[in-house]
Amino acid sequence: MKHLLKMLDLSRQEIFDILDLADKLKYQTKHNIPHRMLEGKTLGMIFQKASTRTRVSFETGMYQLGGYPLFLSANDLQIGRGEPVQDTARVLSRYLDCIMIRTFAQEEVENLAEYGTIPIINGLTDFCHPCQVLADLLTIREYKANFDGLKMCYIGDGNNMANSLIVGGLKVGMQVSVACPDGYHPDKKVLDFAEQQGGFTLTGNPLEAATDADVIFTDVWSSMGMESEIEQRKIAFKGYQVNEEVMAAAHADAMVMHCLPAHRGEEITAEVFENHAQEIFDEAENRLHAQKAVMVKLMLPDAE
Ligand code: CP
Ligand code: NVA
User: Which of 246, 164, 252 is nearest to 206 (CA)?
Assistant: First the structure.
């Protein structure tokens, strides 16, 4: 694995290798066992969108690994004034050991990888959010021991989270069911992959998607960059909510997951959110452990 650009690029084995290393690093972190595997390495973090979890977990993770994280706001870089990403990639490759980027177009991340000579990590684009989904898979495996026979359900916008969850969920062997309104379906490349892979259903009916599910996911109705569509989306997504009725259709011990930030009363009720706060915040914590594993895999490819 040379980069982490999207879940579509990862093999099933690479996903499991990341999860296994994340488990090990989580244990070391929890038991204060030093694991300064990236001493002397520098991570540049480019943010073109807001972030709480991604920024803090990457920054802390790099520090715990003995490396140096550099926060680079796009507003302060020349990239924000139009310097092409191809040139930025070639310059930053001369200074840094790895780049994490959060931006809008997936193409920008792919260009960084093509023109740079160091590993690139996608910290969220409009197309996908692979770091989040690796943390989500880590959390599901912690709670359920393995993925065999599990049904994962996603209710809401066919956005970056849906795109990554479908691919990640299917690759590790779960059944995946998705409920989205017409006009808000996941990306065609993802649907093509899912159709080829099998074990996937797409419906307009949240209750149908949630039936007998073991894990229920949702995400905001309007993602970052869609601020002008908020009112129109509130109408389109009415009914696409994780609530008691949806939970009643799922298995009694179903987990609820949310990448956060959450909008209570929109995609999830306050009641369901609080009933499942334990797993939702374990999921947030696991960003740290999963990303540390990704950084070690990319910057120290021979590490176990
Ligand atoms: N889930 C997630 O990526 O959160 P942030 O936007 O706060 O980084
Ligand atoms: N779909 C959301 C995820 C935030 C972590 C967004 O892109 O804003």
Answer: 246
Residue among 259, 263, 287 whose CB has most ligand 2 atoms within 8 A, to mutate: 259
Specify the pTM. Answer: 0.98
178-216 confidence digits (pLDDT tens) = 999 999 999 999 999 999 999 999 999 999 999 999 999
Closest residue by Cα to residue 230 from 165, 157, 124, 153 = 157
Q: Which is the catalytic residue, given 3, 102, 141, 258?
A: 102
* pLDDT per position as a tens digit, 213-242: 999 999 999 999 999 999 999 999 999 999
- Sorted by where each starts, the structural domains of the chain and their CATH numbers stand as 7-129+287-299 (3.40.50.1370), 132-283 (3.40.50.1370)
Is the CB of residue 260 below 6 angstroms from any atom belonging to ligand 1? yes
Nearest atom of ligand 1 to the alpha carbon of 57: 8
Is 132 among the residues known to form the active site?
yes
What tokens does 26 get?
Answer: 């989580």
Please identify, by atom number, the ligand 1 atom nearest to the C-alpha of residue 259: 1
**Contacts for 106 with CB less than 8 Å, ≥ 6 apart:** 5, 6, 122, 125, 126, 127, 128
Show Cβ contacts of residue 84 under 8 Å, excluding neighbours closer than 6 positions.
Answer: none
